[in-house]
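Lesson 9: reading folded outputs for more than one chain in a single document. The general rule is that every protein is listed as its sequence immediately followed by its structure tokens, and records are never interleaved. Here is the first one.
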Amino acid sequence: MDIHQLRSFKTIVEKGNFQDAAKELNYSLSAISYQIQQLENEIKFPLFEKIGRRMLPTEQSLKLIPHIKKIEEEIEQIKQLNSKDRRIEGSLNISVSDSLLTYILQPVLKEFIETAPDVKLKLKVRNCYEVQKEIIRNNIDLGIHYQVHGYDEQIRVKELSTFTVGVMASPAFSQEERNFDRKDQVKSCSVINNDANGVYQQYFEEYLNKKNITTGQNIELWSIEAIKKSIINNLGIACLPHFVVEEEIKNGEIIEINIKGFQRSITMITAHHTNKWISPAMELFLKILNEKMI
């Protein structure tokens, strides 16, 4: 067996099908199918089984994935030997929260891409809990998200910054609806979010439940920008980090509802497996990130 066969198998599992994996690796469909056939002949057990119209990895074949990742890391380390004067290459897989990617990480990404243009950077937008799962399963190199449940000693965590959150509304939002301090209320306003499982959305939901306050319908949108536009147009209210709406508050397009009992903060962290090899690409990214967050 060779690394190309192993990498093909891993990519098929990650992409979910042969066609997308072949496109990712720049192979023909027949070439990647042949590689899988050769690998099966060598390891003496099937890698995939047909369920309906889909080809799914067998339970036994999935045990190969952690070993393949270790092999890839070892190969990358070998490539980096005596490479102090070489350009930084390789790949870097990062999962990150939407608001952090959109409003905090843009300068970091710009400098990283300019400094290391040969690195294949893969960014996935996930909520905090999904990022945490990917880190624990060692499916990504680095996670950047808001602190939620704690990690065990296998995960290295670094706190970068703490941000405050608040409940945002349009200046046209009804004065009668703005009181969220009083208990036992029924309100007609809608609550907007981009992920019902998002950490700051959950903070606000917990507060509403504690106060026994019922709101109108929940509106789930696809992005923070869409949420802000909806707030400005008075379609509902939303709990958001202050850094997301700084400009809109300054321009008078959005206001913050003053809620005495709701003062929450969120902590931005980086996290990765303790035994994860810190590649030159990852080392550079973390260096730029830490410098920008000072």
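And here is the second record, again sequence then tokens.
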Amino acid sequence: MGIEFQPSLRTSTTLRVPEDVPEYDLIFYAVLPYPEYESLVAKGAALELWSDVPSRDGKQNEWGAHAFHRAEQSITGASTGASALKLSALPGTPSTSADSLDSGSEVVLQCRCSVSTPESRPFSFTYRVKYPDGNIQWQAGDHDNGSIIVQRYPTLLEQREGWKDSSSGVQSFSSPSAYGSLDAEVAKVVREPGITWNGWAIDNQSVIAFALDGAIAPHAASLITLIPTFEPRSHVEFRQSFMLHVSLPASISIGPGGEVLLNSEAGGESLHLRKLSSSFADASSSEPNELQRQLGNLYSLSPDFVALAVPGTPILKLYLLPLFPSKGETRISIPHSLIFPHLPSGSRLLVFSPDTHTANFLDESIPLEGTVQSHGGYLIITPAMELGSGWLVASLSNISIVDKILQPPSVENQAAVPSSQLANPSNSGSDAQSNALFAPAVQLALLVNMLLALFFASLGGKPSSFHPNPDLPVNGQIDGTQSGPMEAQDPPLSDLNEKQQTLAFDLRNTPQTFSFLFHKAGSSISELSFALGQQEFEPHVQALNGSDGSYLVSLEREHKETGLEVSIRE
């Protein structure tokens, strides 16, 4: 019979597991040709592991059967039955090979056994094929068993002197010699065979993904999550990650050898470490109030992912970030309560994925659904403004609407104003406490949102029906389907909005290059004119994928230009 089992019989395999991991999985594989697999399925036969590995009912040192199953598919998570909007990859996302265990001519089965034995110990095993009539075909003789030896070692993250435990399980660093200094090593990752290190960080108020040996590494981060990732067909896996957070103005970085470095010039900051083995929600409920406030921008969406909402003016970036290793893509349902508190009322909302150049209208009655890669991803959510003759306009950059193009300001009035901020949702506690993770311009954001709301109201828009549902569970699954393509969702335009023939934007605090979405079913972008300052020009235009009459318009300005006008051609 052409079945290849891994680990092999008549061999001894040593696996290493950290002592601070409460539970781990031993994984066995069976590789066989497709014709042979189909033959076994047709006969109703089952491949089984026969071992003294503890069974799920907790019995220790007793031999028993454990079934093999097809390896996990590349897309996991609950599906509502509709195609999901694919999230764009985070900056710095490492390139990865295909996660599928199957090859072109073979099928891979796997058997997972969850073990919670704390001590180092050996396990014995053999394999068999069991038929419906009770007949059993053993794959080796009585003395040909294989063995697995599990060795425990201290930890995957070595901590330097100065860390203190707390009753909540969160550790705090309190070494006077490290605070007030640059590049003080506070911890270091352990390099174990078969494990690579990935993660994500909030670095200089942006979110990046990284691999420990990759080209991009966090260098001025307020939060870093380190995730040990296992090679394909690993024989042991466990759920553990490390989240480090430091209060501003200090920062943490990752050195070339995996060192965690504290950069603290002022002193008096606080550095915390949390080891995760379950979900973010399970761990956060028992933490000190200070750390809950500092991490208040993170919300648990599932046991494996957290969401981070980054409000701007007027856009919202919504990040989905992994806590543990995952394979392929994961489908996530995002409740509206994470979206609407950050955006102006009275407008239709567009959800845009930069990588795929696709956009959908956000339906208030249907939760947003997306597929995210193992390293995390993000979406841009932006209000759609109405321009005359049926055009919808949505900014993809932090940019303000004004009544008319502003003249260049004098030199003494050119003080920079923050164009984006990372603010905590309004239902997460007091603003003074919940914004400790970042330093956002909250008052500016509130003022701009009020002005935007007044702007939309002046155009005749009806009061918004987009309100967060207080009964929506933040970390629960919600039934519903993704909204349809853009051309099928054209909203009716009010009479007053039909009269708005020009939109003007303030460019004083925008990047040199910025983008907009324009949509009108069955239209041509030539119906619109664009002017930077007083000069008309032709922007770079790209049609959106799968949507008739939808365009991505990219613009680049000189530093002296302070305004943009978009108009309906006469």
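What the second record shows: The chain is about 10% helix and 40% strand.
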